[in-house]
Automatic annotation (TrEMBL):
InterPro entries: CBM96 (IPR055372), Glyco_hydro_71 (IPR005197). Keywords: Secreted, Signal. This is Endo-1,3-alpha-glucanase family glycosylhydrolase. It comes from Nonomuraea indica. Its main location: secreted. The keyword Secreted applies. Residues 38-195 form the Carbohydrate-binding module family domain. It is found in: Secreted. Residues 1-29 form the signal peptide. It holds the Pfam family Glyco_hydro_71.
Length: 652
């Protein structure tokens, strides 16, 4: 079983050389000015428990009070108001929504806002015919001054354009009187939506071979796809230009960080897409950019590896949560405390830290409001320890937890954790041979009444640890998705979004651009909604830039060796095609051209790796329909050992 935490937890940097062409960084958009939209109530009325059949539709005020209002135990009054929101763009960011009401009296009362569901009309609604009112308050406000607008934050309940109805309830016998829309002076309830326009960065840079379903359709699926976020490697570590930033200076060069990575030729072989320096707070801005990238790829959220509750890694976790909430609270962050990094953190401290994060609307909860916590290497603490921790979360912080432990050894620990767990996951493997029978674990979890989160991976090469898995070009990616789909896994975790020290990243990067996310989007759609129709001819090319056995010219003293139990190492170039109809594929590698007939739909063919350039062209009826040219030259004499698979797409 893999153990990713043999890698150091230092910061990450971008490598600008290694003899390969760099992917052009995306352009930076300028900061947009905030936009504010205000909507008057389309309907508002109050109902009275003391007069259950009476309509108050003609009143110019709304009366709200709790049980005991009017010195009677059945005197509760509830106000209802409804708004129709239009004109909020789908890519709006930093959205804040307030329900603005004007009180007619000065009181120290507390008013709560709850969602109202079901049909109702202003004219006909009475206490007896009132709509269903949510048990959980969206927000509450205490203290009202006559004639002064009170603003109640309802951001968590408003998701963009649509119709929204709210019930206003009181907490005690004192009446809160609010102006209604019939009161002269335009002092009735209003909904104010403030946002900044999106940058457009959530749109991918080129066409997919199919039409990716909209966000609502993808998120409407009960099957969820998260990507594992590793905080040591954000988009930038120092807000410098990619040619000279910390990645380039220290992680991608053997002499970086005063030579501490020289033995293995540098810490990293790939890096995030670079960008120019930006003037705003780049730490949060970069997290927003990554959230947009993940949304564009169809993901439901990130599982965030929590390595610390005090260090820079903890700050990054908090900023990631903040960024997700600003860009789109529907993009969820799953809390994944890491028992390696948190080995010295006690239960109470961890509970307080997780409760702090859980206050955000972007942190993932189940429909029953349980907080999802998926500890990495859960067996690093005993099941009894986790059980006590969950009790602390509930008794001290009022938070019920749905535990989904991610094991390094699922079968050894599943029985002990079953009584306290909502579901199970494991970290998994990164080669086709080890991923041939994934349905077994899924069936075991389902047989125990638990959901299963299946790891899906691309590859795994670790220079600093001296090991690598043979992914077989995209074979491992396709095999792990097949296991998740055929086995009917409940959730999927892409392992990983950005762990560049282990070269497991899906994120847009220098070595692959968007290619792995584009391929992943097809299988993600198959998993969630059924496989989509291929509407655009696209060819993907994957290969290493050296034969596995090639010796580097740099004097490395530590070379990567094949992990035990892995698929046998191979030297191949793969052409993966997604075609609308059969076509002829011509593949040129190192000056040698070979051709084959590719069927409609998805197919893959491999060819011998040779030094030189690699490209593939798809023709149909003598017309070229797709062409991909790899920007990465293959060499028999690499500078440092580099076994990371490069990827390119004809669609970009």
């Amino acid at each position: 079983m893999v153990n990713r935490y043999l890698a150091p937890l230092a910061g990450v940097v971008l490598l600008a050389t290694l003899g390969t062409a760099a992917v052009a960084p995306p352009a930076q958009a300028s900061a947009a000015a905030p936009v504010s939209l205000t909507f008057a109530a389309a309907d508002d009325v109050f109902v009275s428990q003391a007069e259950p059949a009476k309509s108050f539709a003609t009143a110019t005020w709304m009366s709200v009070c709790g049980t005991g209002c009017g010195s009677t135990a059945t005197g509760q009054r509830i106000a209802l108001t409804r708004f129709k929101v239009t004109g909020v763009p789908a890519d709006a960011e930093d959205v804040k929504v307030t329900l603005d009401v004007v009180p007619a009296r000065t009181t120290d009362t507390t008013l709560s806002v709850r969602q109202a569901t079901g049909s109702w009309t202003e004219a006909a609604t009475t206490w007896d015919t009132r709509p269903t009112i949510g048990a959980t308050a969206v927000t509450s406000h205490t203290g009202f001054t006559a004639g002064t607008t009170a603003r109640l934050d309802v951001s968590s309940a408003v998701k963009g354009d649509g119709t929204y109805a709210f019930a206003l309830t009181g907490a005690d016998a004192t009446t809160t009187v609010l102006m209604s829309s019939r009161e002269t002076g335009n002092r009735g309830p209003k909904l104010t939506v403030t946002y900044t326009g999106g940058t457009g960065g959530e749109q991918t840079d080129g066409p997919l071979p199919f039409t990716l379903a909209g966000k609502a359709a993808l998120r409407g699926s009960a099957r969820k796809v998260f990507a594992h976020y590793f905080t040591p490697y954000p988009l930038s570590l120092d807000n410098q230009a990619p040619a000279t930033d910390y990645y380039a200076r220290n992680y991608l060069k053997p002499e970086g960080e005063s030579g501490k990575h020289a033995a293995y030729g540098g810490l990293l072989r790939d890096r995030p897409l670079g960008r120019d320096p930006i003037a705003v707070d780049y730490t949060v801005a970069d997290f927003k950019a990554e959230v947009r990238q993940a949304i564009a790829a169809g993901l439901d959220g990130f599982t965030v590896d929590i390595l610390s509750v005090t260090s820079a890694h903890w700050t990054r976790v908090q900023n990631l949560v903040k960024a997700a909430e600003a860009v789109d609270p529907g993009f969820k962050i799953v809390l994944m405390p890491d028992t390696n990094g948190l080995a010295s953190v006690d239960s109470a401290t961890l509970a307080a830290a997780m409760a702090k994060l859980a206050a955000s609307t972007s942190v993932y909860r189940l429909a029953d409001n349980r907080l999802v916590v998926a500890p990495f290497k859960a067996e690093g603490r005993t099941a009894a320890w986790w059980s006590d921790w969950m009790k602390t979360m509930e008794t001290k912080h009022g938070i019920k937890v749905a535990l989904v432990p991610c094991f390094l050894d699922f079968n050894k620990h599943r029985d002990a954790f079953a009584p306290i767990s909502y579901g199970f996951s494991n970290w998994g493997n990164r080669n086709p041979a080890a991923n041939a029978g994934l349905g077994t674990n899924i069936d075991r979890a389902h047989g125990m009444g638990k959901i299963w989160m299946q790891p899906v991976s691309v590859q795994d090469e670790r220079p600093n640890q001296g090991i690598f898995d043979e992914a077989g070009n995209t074979e491992n990616l396709r095999a792990t998705w097949k296991g998740a789909i055929d086995g009917k896994a409940d959730w999927v975790q892409l392992t990983t979004w950005n762990d560049y020290s282990e070269n497991t990243q899906f994120a847009p990067s220098r070595n692959a651009g968007w290619t792995y996310l584009d391929i992943n989007a097809y299988y993600l759609t198959c998993y969630k909604l059924g496989c989509p129709k291929i509407t655009n001819d696209v060819a993907y090319l994957t290969h290493r830039i050296q034969p596995v056995a090639a010796q580097p010219t740099y004097q490395q003293t530590k070379l990567m060796k094949l992990r035990g139990g892995s698929t046998a190492a191979r030297d191949t170039v793969e052409v993966l095609t997604m075609l609308t109809a059969p076509g002829k594929v011509s593949v040129t590698i190192g000056g040698t051209t070979q051709s084959y007939d590719a069927p409609a739909g998805v197919s893959a063919r491999t060819f011998r790796l040779q030094a030189g350039a690699a490209s593939a062209t798809v023709t149909r009826s003598s017309a070229q329909v797709a062409k991909v040219v790899s920007p990465y030259t293959i060499t028999a004499t690499p500078y440092v050992q580099d076994l990371h698979y490069r990827a390119a797409s004809s669609g970009r």
